[in-house]
Specification:
With 305 residues, the protein is mainly beta. Helix content is 6%, strand content 36%. It contains 2 helices and 23 strands. The two termini are 35 Å apart.
């Protein structure tokens, strides 16, 4: 990440001209420059931060943005009400994570991969967050309360996805046109329960990797290398990895930006003294990090509800 300009979410296979939301890591006191699609340059400065929020200045305007889980009490009714995003000087600025969350297990540290005080995402108002291509909400006919557990403290570190609770067997569809680049089949009764279960990694044409976790089954024809279109049926919701735990069936969705997605796989290791089961980590050679799925999910849900 650069400390003087923002970078797009494009990876080696992405289409940067289609991507609207950009990311940057900043230390307190550092600035970045965002250039709008009409060529207007706007200075973004990280003024201060604490455990629960950051203060950001755009040109002469100052705002504070919260970081952490979105509770049912603070859940929005529209995209403009998102507590994790501020609209300022024609921009939407959000905070994905701060150095506060660079603690705990290798899962959290490797997946956030944050090297400065905070990671911001920036986009223009009136533009979609992801890209101009079609995106759909991953659970059709789903009633969502807009709560989020992004950055919630959990036994394996920080929760770096969003859980969408649905009954076992609820359909899962592809969010975007893309290719299945990674799969992990959990063997109930053979593998130790590990908080992850079945995994599927879909590399979207927007340059984002979408990780579907805990699914119960996939439809015929879904395998490594499968091409799917937005809205195509992938499989069904489950609770694999949690067979003896009081955790309901759900989709755990993660989104990642990877410079080398061709090197990605679902990697696991044991961390003695941390967990009794294998824990996931993001390999350093893919050169990437997770991003907060929540604002994207809200946008797609409201667009198709």
């Amino acid at each position: 990440m650069s400390d003087n300009h923002l970078v797009s979410t494009s990876n080696a296979r992405g289409h940067s001209e289609d991507l609207f939301c950009q990311y940057c890591d900043l230390n307190v006191g550092e600035s970045a420059v965002y250039t709008t699609r009409t060529g207007v340059r706007k200075a973004i400065r990280l003024e201060a931060m604490d455990a629960g929020s950051i203060a950001v200045r755009v040109n002469s305007s100052l705002t504070r943005i919260s970081a952490g889980p979105v509770t049912p009490e603070t859940a929005p009714s529209s995209l403009g009400d998102l507590p994790s995003i501020a609209e300022i000087e024609g921009l939407r600025i959000g905070v994905d994570a701060t150095r506060t969350f660079m603690t705990g297990t290798r899962y959290s540290v490797s997946s956030l991969n944050l090297h400065k005080d905070a990671r911001l995402h920036v986009s223009e108002m009136q533009q979609p967050l992801a890209s101009a291509i079609t995106h759909v909400f991953p659970l059709p006919d789903f009633e969502w309360g807009f709560a989020s557990n992004w950055l919630l403290k959990v036994i394996y570190g920080w929760h770096l996805g969003v859980d969408l609770y649905a009954g076992r067997g609820h359909l899962l569809v592809s969010i975007v046109d893309g290719t299945v680049i990674a799969m992990r089949h959990y063997r109930s009764g053979h593998d130790p329960e590990d908080y992850w279960g079945n995994n599927l990694g879909l590399l979207g044409e927007d340059g984002i990797l979408y990780c579907y976790m805990h699914w119960d089954s996939v439809v015929e024809g879904i395998h490594l290398g499968s091409r799917v279109s937005a809205g195509d049926l992938i499989g069904s919701v489950g609770r694999t990895g949690f067979e003896t735990k009081a955790i309901p069936s759900h989709l755990h969705l993660e989104m990642m930006i990877l410079k080398h997605p061709e090197r990605f796989c679902f990697a696991y290791e044991r961390e003695p003294g941390v967990l009794v089961t294998p824990n996931r980590f993001l390999q350093p050679e893919v050169e990437g990090h997770v991003i907060n799925p929540y604002p994207y999910l809200v946008e797609w849900y409201l667009g198709h509800a």
